[in-house]
């Protein structure tokens, strides 16, 4: 039995939020590092890559559903710089981490509900 693509998309969302958590944590850890530029994760690159993967004409064009040139991590060059040429705003990073945690929790809840749905369906078919 093949599971629906919803599980795959939720897995990608959870992986992206885990990566974003590491990136945001790194931003906070480097908030006092001169010349450090805040980074973030572009979620669309994870899902656009999947769409592009389906359209690929050669398997070498893409790796793991994401274009090889895009890791999904972006650098914020447009933010205002502090006196030490660092652009990390700790309050903004904490707010982003809170938003990110909510996305992760929502995805985990959906995975749990999908598993329960499949369990219920299998019990009824036995």
From TrEMBL:
Coiled coil: none annotated. The keyword Heme does not apply. It comes from the Bacteria. Keywords: Bacterial flagellum, Cell projection, Cilium, Flagellum. It is found in: Bacterial flagellum basal body. InterPro entries: FlgB. Transmembrane segments: none annotated. Its main location: other. Belongs to the flagella basal body rod proteins family. The basal body constitutes a major portion of the flagellar organelle and consists of a number of rings mounted on a central rod. PANTHER family: FLAGELLAR BASAL BODY ROD PROTEIN FLGB, FLAGELLAR PROTEIN. Structural component of flagellum, the bacterial motility apparatus. Part of the rod structure of flagellar basal body. NCBIfam families: FlgB. This is Flagellar basal body rod protein FlgB. The gene is flgB.
């Amino acid at each position: 039995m093949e599971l629906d693509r919803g599980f795959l998309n939720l897995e990608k969302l959870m992986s992206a939020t885990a990566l974003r958590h590491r990136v945001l944590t790194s931003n906070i850890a480097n908030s006092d590092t001169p010349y450090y530029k805040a980074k973030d994760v572009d979620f669309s690159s994870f899902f656009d890559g999947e769409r592009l993967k389906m359209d690929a004409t050669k398997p070498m064009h893409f790796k793991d559903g994401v274009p090889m040139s895009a890791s999904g991590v972006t650098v914020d060059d447009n933010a205002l710089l502090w006196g030490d040429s660092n652009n990390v705003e700790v309050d903004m990073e904490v707010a982003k981490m809170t938003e990110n945690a909510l996305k992760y929790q929502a995805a985990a809840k959906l995975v749990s509900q999908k598993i329960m749905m499949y369990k219920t369906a299998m019990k009824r078919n036995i």
